[in-house]
Amino acid sequence: MTRDTTAGLSLPLMEAFYTVQGEGFHAGKPAYFVRIGGCDVGCHWCDVKESWNPEMHPVTPVDDIVKNAIEYSETVIVTGGEPLMWNMIPLTNKLRDKNIKIHLETSGVYTFTGVWDWVCLSPKKRKQATPIAYEKADELKVIVYNGSDFDFAELQAENVSKECKLYLQPEWSRQEKIIPKIVDFVLKNPKWNISLQTHKFMRIP
């Protein structure tokens, strides 16, 4: 990657598209998604493994990303991969200059950069999220693959603010086995909510 990517003036852009948010607190709302390449967290169930290698995605000037985004929506969701591998300050500053609301989806394992209107933290067992990621989280979303993930979720919830929204989301390939367990858990622990990947049910991006 180039010096521009280090500074955050250009980013490895995997894809960008206008669709409906399918998950979590803002599910059902339209937004422009910016998917940034690069991630070394390595979740075995990741459904966008093609995002992991940043070298596979074109280095794109932030100005171009912003120019395209503002044509579609007043809300931009920056996801990955892991966006915080890169300096997010130029991207968020330029979007804010255009009065765009900016959401971040992150595992929280890298240095926190950028100014965000909403932060969805999805921590992973393989790498611990940073303290500031927990502090900034508006939404905690834990992917449930097996029974031990409920204990992991409770531990993660201890690190976020009382105002943070708590979500459990079944891993897509195991939803038939996991959803009944999540429902049972949420009924016993009503501070938690259920997040489903509704965009996959609707067969939209």
TrEMBL record:
UniProt superkingdom: Eukaryota
Listed SUPFAM superfamilies: Radical SAM enzymes
Keyword Metal-binding: yes
This protein's record includes keyword ATP-binding: no
GO MF term list: 4 iron, 4 sulfur cluster binding; lyase activity; metal ion binding
Keywords: 4Fe-4S, Iron, Iron-sulfur, Lyase, Magnesium, Metal-binding, S-adenosyl-L-methionine
Domain (Radical SAM core): residue spans on this chain: 26-205
Pfam families cross-referenced by the UniProt entry: Radical_SAM
Annotated protein name in UniProt: 7-carboxy-7-deazaguanine synthase
Organism encoding this protein: Elysia marginata
